[in-house]
Amino acid sequence: MTLIAPPGNRITDVAGIEVGHHHRVDPDARVAGDEPGRGWATGATVVRISAPGAVCAVDVRGGGPGTRETDLLDPVNTVQTAHAIVLTGGSAYGLAAADGVMTGLERAGAGLSMDDRGHVVPIVPAAVIFDLPVGAWENRPDADFGLAALAAVTPDVAVGSVGGGAGARAGPLKGGVGTASVWLESGPAAGVTVGALVVANPVGEVIDPTTGLPWGATDDDMVRYRLGTPVADEIAHLTALSAKQTVLNTTIGVIATDAELDPASTRRVAMAGHDGLARAITPAHSPLDGDTIFAVSTGAVPVQSPVPGSPLAVPRGMNPDVAVLAEVCRAAAGVVRDAIVQAVLAAESVAGVPAYRDVLPSAVH
Predict the structure, then answer these.
(1) Which candidate, 175, 152, 178, places its Cα nearest to that of 254?
(2) Three-state DSSP string of the chain
(3) Which own/partner pairs from 308-311 qualify as long-range (CB within 8 Å, at least 24 positions apart)?
(4) Range 68-77 average pLDDT
(5) Overall average pLDDT of the 57-81 stretch
């Protein structure tokens, strides 16, 4: 059963952002082991950016990234926007999905205008996860996957074993796609929304094998994710799985905010997102991971200087722009962490990779 993230807790709470998935998962898919894998178990996710004048940036922390058009998003370079971002399976082969997204955007006339005859060049950065052993190695996303994911974009966001997370793992458990958002009610960034969408496929674990719960789970987390303390036998089962897990890698995602930020500040938001990744995954940013976080500022909420002494006032001596950025960065780390946890809790078993709810059913309420 496909789960849909509710309004108020998804990246599309930021106006001008939509998400589309396309995947193929065969009932007989099998993870490669002593014999070759079998069937399809992979997909692609597109984050469509329709907000005019959106600013985009990226921060890559993993030691083994698979990416496209990331140099373009450096704040020192000329083009500092994107029309869509692709998060896909298939390792480096899966970068072909971005070709399909470019084709679809070009047909719609979306992209950088090149002349007065309607020619455009869509800007479509992409990042991949390594999911090739889940299913048959030769079954991976191509341009048709990207085109289909773009055609499926909607404000609704499906989570779990969908899109680019169809073949994802998180340590010994099934990984997937997760999303989260927060609306900042007070402080220098009051009125700003920050959201994230993540494909979780890390070498490290999102679930603490000694407790059967997300790392550092609080009482608020238990309520938010409707979790209870799992029974001892289930925790022992998870610990045994952890001891013999197969190394797969990479967590990739997009943070979006409607705060008006310049390119350098937008990159700072992407950097802060990695703090959330490190809170959710142990270990994170290994030499085998390709951890990559994109950030998008739609600019719909201008940064305003608060009235001195008001509840929105910033610390003495701090530039209001910096105060807003600090709040957005704090929120970015939080929503990335929440999106990663949701990705694992929402996932369903694929190709025999067990889901959280299969291994620790007593924890799921």
Answers:
(1) 178
(2) CCEEECCCCCHHHCCCEEEEEEEEECCCCEECCCCCCECCEEEEEEEEECCCCCEEEEEECCCCCCEECCHHHCCCCCCCCCCEEEEECCHHHHHHHHHHHHHHHHHCCCCEECCCCCCEECCCCEEECECCCECCCCCCCCHHHHHHHHHCCECCEEEECCHHHCCCEECCEECEEEEEEEECCCCCCCCCEEEEEEEECCCCECEECCCCEECCCCHHHHHHCCECCCCHHHHHHHHHHHHCCCCCECEEEEEEEEECCCHHHHHHHHHHHHHHHHHHCECCCCCCCCCEEEEEEEEEECCCCCCCCCCCCCCCCCCHHHHHHHHHHHHHHHHHHHHHHHHHHHCCCECCECCHHHHCHHHEC
(3) 311/186, 311/187
(4) 95
(5) 93
- Residue 187 is predicted with a pLDDT of 87
**CB neighbour class for 35 (10 Å; exposed up to 12, middle 13-18, buried from 19):** exposed
Residue 131 has pLDDT above 50, yes or no: yes
- For residue 180, the one-letter residue type is A
pLDDT for the residue numbered 306: 53
Asked whether 296 and 11 are in contact (CB, 8 A), the reply is: no
Each residue's pLDDT tens digit, 189-239: 999 999 999 999 998 899 999 999 999 999 999 999 999 999 999 999 999
User: Hey, how many other C-beta atoms are within 10 angstroms of the C-beta on 344?
Assistant: 30
